[in-house]
Design a protein that fits this description.
This protein has 199 residues and is α/β, with parallel strands linked by helices. It has a single domain, classed as Rossmann fold. The chain is built from 10 helices and 5 strands. The chain has a 5-stranded parallel sheet. The longest helix is centred in the last third of the chain and has 26 residues. The chain starts with a strand and ends with a helix. 33% of the residues are buried.
């Protein structure tokens, strides 16, 4: 059975009833039918919400998942980062786990420093705020895929074009990311009736 990870954009699609929500709802149905195991990343709760803020606790994040129909999905814990992750739902990392994170970071964001302070440099004021926001967003993207790989999932569902870039996708698969698919592609790939439909 495939373990399927939804990235943060999937939650937003459901919340805002975007066109891709139709495909995600079909994935939820496959999960409820026992065809797949659907997972979400706890790091999604650390992304900036549409009102510009952050969900203050892990319980608030879980309530949001329930509100959009993802309340019974498996939640994947990321590596813990001060002021980024929920410290009641994260993992202490050893060198091996951090090495995987660094490898993912180098593929997705080669132009961004891995260490927060190195990314900030000597910036101050508004420029510092912008750089802080960029680093946090990129860290969340890296930790989403890290969580997917670390927890043994096989299909990563995302509409974020950075994961689909031709210069990156094969390299991410080499890191054991498995299939990286857009929502509509994931439905086609995971549909248990697809063979019968084509025959």
């Amino acid at each position: 059975m495939h373990r399927v990870t939804l990235d943060t954009n999937a939650i937003i699609h459901l919340e805002e009833k975007r066109p891709a929500a139709t495909s995600i709802i079909r994935l939820i149905d496959l999960h409820k039918r026992g065809v797949i195991t659907l997972c979400v990343c706890a790091i999604s709760g650390s992304e900036r919400s549409k009102d510009g803020g952050f969900r203050p606790t892990f319980e608030v994040f879980k309530r949001k998942l329930s509100q959009v129909g993802l309340g019974d999905t498996e939640i994947l814990a990321p590596i813990g980062y001060w002021n980024v992750t929920y410290f009641d739902f994260c993992l202490w990392a050893d060198n091996e786990l951090v090495d995987l994170e660094k490898s993912i970071h180098r593929v997705l964001f080669p132009e961004i420093a891995f260490v927060f302070q190195n990314h900030l440099g000597e910036t101050v004021g508004k420029e510092r705020e912008v750089r802080e926001r960029r680093w946090r967003n990129d860290k969340c993207d890296v930790l989403a895929l890290w969580s997917h790989i670390h927890h043994g999932c096989s299909v990563f569902v995302t509409s974020d074009e950075n994961y689909h870039a031709t210069t990156k996708k094969d390299r991410l698969k080499e890191l054991a990311a498995g299939e990286i698919l857009r929502p509509v592609q994931a439905v086609e790939f995971l549909n248990p009736d697809r063979g019968r439909e084509r025959s």
